[in-house]
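Weekly structure sync, notes
Attendees: PL (lead), two postdocs, one rotation student
Agenda item 3: pending single-chain targets
PL asked that the sequence for the first pending target be pasted directly into the notes so everyone works from the same version. It is reproduced below exactly as submitted, 106 residues in total.
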Amino acid sequence: MESNELIRNLKIIVVLAVIIGLIVAVFYLIYGFALFWQAMAATIIIGFLSILVIIFIALSIYFWTKNLLLKREVKKYQIELNYCRAEMNKIKENSNKVTESNKTKD
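Predicted structure, written out during the meeting:
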């Protein structure tokens, strides 16, 4: 009788060990899948951020060259504006001389 109880208790312990083992295995699989999904999500985010960095570098290079070209244009137009300003001042001085000479003649 005692051996039958021992075998029965042993069967219960083995069944409980198998159930606990299955529960642990399921948790381990869930943990592994969670790590897998976290790795995939991290890869996607890193890829997205890398693309953003490349886009921002390209935009900064574009705007830097555009700024450089605009500064050249501004310098060119500034020289032309100074030349036109000097011509206008000459024309004003000549017109002032002509009007003064006309006033003195009258």
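Discussion points:
- Residues 67 and 73 are 10 Å apart (CA to CA).
- The mean pLDDT is 88.
Action: rotation student to compare against the earlier draft before next sync.
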